[in-house]
Amino acid sequence: MRTRPQRLADVAGFNIDRVADAAGSDPSVLRLENLDTDLGPPTEAITATIAAAGTLEANSWLPFTGKPSMKEAIAARVAQRSGVAYDPATEVVVNSSDGEALLDALLALVDQGDEVVLTDPTYAGLLNRVRLAGAVPRLVPLLSAYGEWRLDLDALERAVSAATRAILVANPAFPTGIVLSDAEWVELARLCVEHDIWLIYWAWMEGIVFDGRPIRHPASLPGMRERTIIVGSASCEQRMIGWRLGWIVAPEAVMPDLSVVQIYNGLVAGGIAQAAGVAALTASDDGLTRCVAEWQRRRDVVGRQLAGLPMIPAAGGWSQLVDTRALGVEPAALSRTLIEHGVAATPMTGWGGDIADRHLRIVFSREPEDRLELLGDRFAAALRAVGAGSSLG
């Protein structure tokens, strides 16, 4: 029997499914382990889904790179956010998830042995897609400064070398919830321009920012339109996880390669999902402002419930991290004990390097505020059970 392919040598599972399996279907368990939300999609998207189901137009393979109406809606949304215009016909491709789009981008841009710069912590799906594409991840630490996550700019510059093909970032980043500052964006742009490398920008949550922070878009920075690959989806901002709808927006020069990879990797997003996506992106009010306010309130409840623990509040997104090693317990061990106390939370082992491995993730987007109010007592009980140091309880 052949051995496992080398590109899979360092690729492991998420841990999320194991935590979810341990939680089972017990309704009393606080489900903080997976990136879900109970806030529903725009009504227009549901109506469009029902209307499209069973129609010939929605039940077709064509067009292979996405329906014109979907491409137009995507280009308009990116232009609204960035102030940069893109041609829907030549600079947008639609696919069946942002995860697929990220792999498409890597397959179209990197060769075996090229390096891609990411943060530590990062989303394990980013890290392992880099490996699946045959590239080598180079990790740059996120640091705690003044109660926020910040990008280590000195380490970032050291990480970029002659072998670097791309920098891959999300904003807000997952799982930390960091929102990059103007200075961090300027430095990222400088490195991309000076070293002539790509920025793969995962924009799936860019509108989910808290405390009045602005939405910043890297394509608007000098020299960046021609070297930025924008990957987005309807999963989070439009709360359409089950529709599996994503996209890539990129300069026309690289779009033929991105399109051909998409055609042979995923072919096309379903027409039913695209009809819903158009409705969501063009709705007069897709509910995002209301949902961001609710997610921020939930983040604040978690902060109050876990006050005193080594945890940096998310500046955006759906999750934040607790440094369990600072409490004297490994993340996986605390995760197992938390299940016994009615809390499902995922250890971040494999979600980067040394920094990720210290942390347990808390997803605050799924549970309502009244249930999150139960978190403090349960967490304190779990910490007592493992003998960890804590100022809780």
Please, could you describe this protein's structure?
α5 links the parallel β3 (about 115-120) and β4. The model has no long low-confidence stretch (mean pLDDT about 95). It is globular, with a radius of gyration of 21 Å. The strands form three sheets. An eight-stranded mixed sheet has the order 2-9-8-7-6-3-4-5, with helices on both faces. The protein has a three-stranded antiparallel sheet with strand order 10-13-12, covered by helices on one side. It has helices spanning about 15-25, 45-50, 70-80, 100-110, 125-130, 155-160, 180-195, 255-265, 270-280, 290-305, 330-340, 370, 375-385, and strands spanning about 30, 90-95, 115-120, 135-145, 150, 165-170, 200, 230-235, 245-250, 320-325, 345, 345, 360-365. With about 400 residues, it is an alpha/beta fold.
